[in-house]
From TrEMBL:
Residues 24-362 form the Enoyl reductase (ER) domain. Its cofactor is Zn(2+). PROSITE patterns: ADH_ZINC (PS00059). Keywords: Metal-binding, NAD, Oxidoreductase, Zinc. It comes from the Eukaryota. Gene3D superfamilies: Medium-chain alcohol dehydrogenases, catalytic domain, NAD(P)-binding Rossmann-like Domain. This is GroES-like zinc-binding alcohol dehydrogenase family protein. GO terms for molecular function: oxidoreductase activity, acting on the CH-OH group of donors, NAD or NADP as acceptor; zinc ion binding. Belongs to the zinc-containing alcohol dehydrogenase family. It holds the Pfam family ADH_zinc_N. SMART domains: PKS_ER. It comes from Actinidia rufa.
Amino acid sequence: MGKGGQSEGNGAQCEENMAAWLLGVNTLKIQPFKLPSLGPNDVRVAMKAVGICGSDVHYLKSMSCGDYYVKEPMVIGHECAGIIKEVGSKVKSLAPGDKVALEPGIACWRCKPCKEGRYNLCDEMKFFATPPIHGSLANQIVHPADLCFKLPEGMSLEEGAMCEPLSVGVYACQRANASPKTSVLIMGAGPIGLVTMLAARAFGVSKIVVADVDEVRLAIAKDLGATAVIKSSQNMEDVGKELELIKKALGGAEADVTFDCVGFGKTMTTALKATSRGGKVCLVGMGHSDMTVPLTPAAGREVDIVGIFRYKNTWPLCIDFITSGKIDVKPLITHRFGFSQKEIEEAFATSARGGSAIKVMFNL
């Protein structure tokens, strides 16, 4: 695997490197994957923990996710952590044996967004398991050293892999300016809704209401620290009733900040109407590309709408939140699998079913 997950070259390796390849709809196969030569600023990492993301499942089910389409075989996976096996000649910050969490995107650092510090918006981003870039569900990968963050003693590799989904929640809270002064509503109690809730708590938010259609997910949210949970529906006609329940759960007030971690017309409509005058709605989920929502009334109440795309500069903060005990990601890891043909198929089927499965993790 080359930098950014590109397959290139015939780099030397002691034993054959194997990876999970997406070959077609619902078709994954473990097969050889050659490593490139190690660059002077690169490291070779033995993958030890890789989580399954919703985007991975989208690619498996339809060979697409949003505007990205898999047109040729691709290695899957991007939530990962491992152990350094080899370092490039110019790498001074890491050494063989170090445990690291990997940030999966390599920016160009030449375009305007990169120069302005918003490298997550780079048009030339090479991101694990985003076509045509290969991912990290492999025995070993090669990656830039500056995107590999050393894990402190006591932090597990699974927790390191969880820095990737947690980064989405952390960045969402940064974009929405979540703080101890804000009350928060979260639409959606899936993996991203839950990490956003954990991040909001770490930023000092004490009043957090979570709404979802799934009672199992709501129970998990409550166990993880939600102030209150609201059972919602998929019917637009129920918005009014649900707004009353949300307001009651927030002590008779509207939410200062709402995170839509679903991205459907109904959830965004609820988010806009449930947010206070001068508040913020952060669109995190990308369920629907197009939706009809009440923007004009929201504008009349000066409700700001912000979006997020992945994250930037979040790994050090995620590591600090986890090691300090402000965030415990371990309860989110509900299922674990090894790295065999049978197990990768079972793992993706488990993740796709949802329900009680929050984060499905591979232990390599």
